[in-house]
Amino acid sequence: MDGLTGSPHVSVNKLGRYLTATPALRKRLIHAQKHPPQPRYLHYPEAAQAITDFLCRGQDEAVLRQHQHRLATTVFTEEFEAHRALLCIEAIERYRSLHSRLGLHGVVASEVGDEPPALEMAGVSIRVAPQVVLQTLDRHGNNKVGVMKLYFSKHHPLDERSGHYIATLLQAFVEQHLAPLGPIDPRLVRVVDVFAGREYLPPKARARRMCDVQLACEEIAARWPVQ
Predict the structure, then answer these.
(1) CA neighbor of 126 nearest in space, from 146, 145, 149
(2) Rounded to two decimals, what is the model's pTM?
């Protein structure tokens, strides 16, 4: 067991659910983070890469079509892999229909990388892992920065509270790790729920939400050894 698996950690998406969950679901979420499924059972990595590629290559829809075509024409030896390809094709199509509403014209995107740093809080590593850094210039020519996080789930869409918690943590990630690129623009901090067709930006009431996150992380750290 490696250090990350053995120490308290949580993905930002699961933490968003945890903060609005029942006690029973909170217990299950901690167990799932401590004993994660094998990587092959993650359903949407190809869709995330396709959308990232699209954003970083000038927002040309031909990029999305290329990824969809590759997935549609690949011959898979396992039924699971073929099913995952269909899910990714659908996710890419959902994002395509959503993109024009996100107002990203003129915004420059770049990949975050494979292993972005985590946020540390109350002994818990929060894996924020946004897909892209977003940058633009204000009317004075000054660089502004944010990030985009893609959320994929057909059956568990984000609600308003979870979406705002995740967006709040994205803003904290930018402040902690991307400050050298320039001041943050909260309008560039986006959580995009691909299947629900919604986006969430950081709310103004951040202090209370960060306090909630602190308490949730304290709870996760306390329960971790017995899960």
Answers:
(1) 149
(2) 0.90
Which one, of 122, 109, 144, lies nearest residue 9 by Cα? 122
Q: Whole-angstrom Cα distance, residue 221 to residue 215?
A: 10
Q: What distance, in Å, lies between the first and last C-alpha atoms of the chain? A: 15
**What is the rounded distance in angstroms from the CA atom of residue 123 to the CA atom of residue 220?**
9
Q: Is 153 left (phi over 0), alpha (psi -120 to 50) or beta?
A: beta
Pairing of strands 190-193, 198-200: antiparallel
198 with 102: CB under 8 angstroms?
A: no
How large is the C-alpha radius of gyration of the chain? 18
**Closest to 150 in 3D by CA, of 40, 80, 50, 66:** 50
List the beta strands (DSSP E) in 82-169: 108-111, 119-121, 124-127, 132-137, 143-151
Q: Which amino acid, 226?
A: V
pLDDT digits (tens, 9 = 90+) for 170-227: 999 999 999 899 999 999 999 999 999 999 999 988 899 999 999 999 999 999 998 7
Q: CA neighbours within 13 Å on the CB side: how many for 90? A: 13
Cα dihedral 105, 198, 23, 41 sign: negative
| CA–CA separation, 96 and 93 (whole Å) | 5
Enter the tokens of residue 135. 């940058």
And the tokens for 120? 């540390």
